[in-house]
Amino acid sequence: MALNTEKELKLFYSIGEVAEMFGVNDTLLRFWEKEFPQLNPKKGGRGMRQYTKDDIEKVRIIYNLVKVRGLRIDAARELLKHNHEGVSQSTEVVERLRAIRQKLVELKAELGGLV
């Protein structure tokens, strides 16, 4: 896959950009930083957070545990602490399945129009 957009070439993302990616607000990301020691974006000049792609992946995992699966913060924290690799893999699988489901729904709608 070719990198062709400016965002794909960036090394760091602001907290606002990351919040927008997940449809959450900056305050929630700051809260998650306090609750999940694994999430620790670099702070540049004037304390501005700089999220790397690795940080964004951690946000994706936390988002999946808390917002998608509905786990409480303490349960999500423990799960990440003891089984980070398994949680990461299951998050990837869930996201792939969602994408496949979306494609199937689109195909069904297209085929429905042909009948």
Task: Give the structural class.
Answer: mainly alpha
CATH third-level topology = Multidrug-efflux Transporter Regulator, Chain: A, Domain 2
* Mean pLDDT score: 85
Estimate nothing, just give the exact number of structural domains. 1
Helix content: 55-70%
Low-pLDDT windows of residues = 1-5
Overall morphology: globular
How far apart the termini lie comes to: 35 Å
Q: Which strands sit side by side, in order, in the main sheet?
A: 1-2
Radius of gyration: 17 Å
Order of helices and strands: HHHEEHH
The level 1 CATH classification is Mainly Alpha
For the secondary structure, the number of strands is 2
Strand content: under 5%
Helical run tally:
5
Q: What CATH architecture label applies? A: Orthogonal Bundle
Topology:
Layout: H1 6-9, H2 15-22, H3 26-35, E1 42-43, E2 49-50, H4 53-68, H5 73-114
Antiparallel strand pairs: 1-2
Helix pairs in contact: 4-5
Describe the model.
- The protein is mainly alpha-helical.
- It has one domain (8-114): Multidrug-efflux Transporter Regulator, Chain: A, Domain 2 (Orthogonal Bundle), CATH 1.10.1660.
- Helix content is 70%, strand content 3%.
- The protein is built from 5 helices and 2 strands, in the order αααββαα.
- The protein has a two-stranded antiparallel sheet with strand order 1-2.
- Helix 4 packs across helix 5.
- It is globular and about 55 Å long.
Task: Pick out its properties.
115 residues; mainly alpha; Multidrug-efflux Transporter Regulator, Chain: A, Domain 2; two-stranded antiparallel sheet; 3% strand; globular; disordered N terminus
